[in-house]
Each structure stands twice: as C-alpha cells, then as structure tokens.
Amino acid sequence: MKLCCSPSRLATDATARPAASSTRGCDATRQTAALAIPGGQTYLGTNRPYFPIDGEGPLRNKKVSAFRMDATSVTNAQFRAFVSDTGYVTDAERHGDSLVFQGLLLKGTPPSPAIADAPWWRMIRGANWRDIYGPGTADRQIDDHPVVHVSSNDATVYAAWAGGRLPSEAEWEHAARGGLGDVLFPWGDREPNDTDFQPCNIWQGRFPHQDLGLDGYVGTAPARSFAPNGYGLYNMVGNVWEFTSETFKVRSLKKEVIAAHAGKKGFRLSKGGSFLCHQSYCYRYRIAARNSCSPDTSTSHTGFRLVYRAELLNWM
C-alpha cells in the first residue's frame, strides 16, 4: 500500500473521548444551502480498477434515496463556529499532535518523527485544526479552505451538531458522478495532467519533492474552487480526502489482500483523494478509489462534507 494517502495512528480508541457540550447546532443556513441530489439507480465501484487490492471493483448497481449534500467540504470558518458553540476538543488536540506533509512545514520547524514507509509524513507536536503546520501557525489558516486535522470521530460529532451526517460510499460516489454515470472523474474520463488540463487540486510534478502548483495551489485550495460537477458540487476529487460513514472493508479471500489490510479493523473509509495525489504515485483522485485510516487519525489533507435528509426543508 502506498502511504501518501493517510498513515494512521498506531493506537485507536473511538470510545474513550468526550462529546461536544452541545449536540445540535442545526445550522439552518448551511442545511438549506445544501444541494438536492436525486435518488434512483446508480453505480458503485468500477470495472477499471487501478488498485484492485483496495476493493475498487467490480462495478455494481446500487439504489439510493434522494438526499441533500453540501456543495463544499466543511470549511475552517464553519468548524470554528462549531467549536465556539460547543467547546469541542478534537482528537488531534487531545493527542497533542497530528500528521503534516513535510512539504508544508515552515522553515525552522523543530525535528519531528517521520512515518517509516512514507517519510514525507511527519508527526508534528501541536498541529491541529487551528495550527495547521504546528504551534504558532494559526495565521496560515484560511477561513474558506477545508478544515483539516480532523478525524472521522470529530466529523461525526460535528455532523450531529449540524443536523446532518456523513455520506455512505454509494451516496458519495453517486453525488461525485454528477449524473454522468460510469465515469472516472466528476467531469468525465479526461485525465488531469501536468501540462494543459488541471480541473482539480492535485499534485503536479515529481512526488514528493516538487509540486509545481500548475492548478494554482500548493496545499489546500478554497472549498469552493474549480468548476462544480453536474450536481453543483465542488472538489469532489482532489483538495482533501472526505470521510464517509462506513468502515473500510474489502471482500476478498486472496492472501495478499488480507495481508495488505491486516490490522485495519474499525478503520474508516474515505473518498476523493487530495492535493497530494498524482497519477505516478497515488492515483486515488478517481471516483471509485478508496482509502482508510483509524477513527482518531488526523492529517493535513483530510476533511469532510455532510449530507441531509431530502425532506429537510419540509419541516424547517
């Protein structure tokens, strides 16, 4: 497994953690702004898997009910409102550290532990959703960028406060396809490249040493950037990974698959890839691509967006 995606903490404890002091913020403005996603028959997975070991295939038919989805991932400003209302403390803050891509660290950052199989990931003391590169870097946080250094535990608590929930994998893929059917990307099948086509925020250049930033960004982009897909959703691939409501499961009896995912019981499934993905290394900005991490893991390239009941507006 290529660990550019999401290395995980060794220890996970999804139960021994405080809840937010308020469990229902019910941000009506945010909910009413969510976009309607039609229900019906849809696709899940692909018959063109690039990482079969991740369980990307085969292509299956699924039926989903109509729902509403945020046009963007949750932003720093929105998460700050949640923390202000509830006093919530994230997993990264409780642990005292979080994973930061080395290329984002500021000059003068103290030495830090590297992930053995992916040394471009550093465990930075004091990194969290406020101080995204470590202590004293809160001024680098931008309100309209996706919140990062949040775990799936944190996302679940936020969702309850906001009156929504994390999407299932089928809902997420259905929304990402934007009505186009069996396609690789939210805009169709045309591949992004390092020359003349950058429809999303991914890596351009030689990973992990040089990101050319040809798409306009090194690191995260604003949550509402690039062209939306057919359902009006922004950055369904690239920018930041997005948590789903599901645990990561690969149904296979092959020894190599079982070995690759050993020790991942209870890991959460995320979708969409991030600004660190590139076809030469982590080709996971495809709709069918999948990723996993422990419930308390947080990184500088993972966030989330919410879905809501389709009938929400009938009672607000």
Automatic annotation (TrEMBL):
One of its GO terms (molecular function) is formylglycine-generating oxidase activity. Residues 32-307 form the Sulfatase-modifying factor enzyme-like domain. It is an enzyme of class 1 (oxidoreductase). Keywords: Oxidoreductase. Its EC number is 1.8.3.7. It comes from the Bacteria. PANTHER family: FORMYLGLYCINE-GENERATING ENZYME, SULFATASE MODIFYING FACTOR 1, 2. This is Formylglycine-generating enzyme.
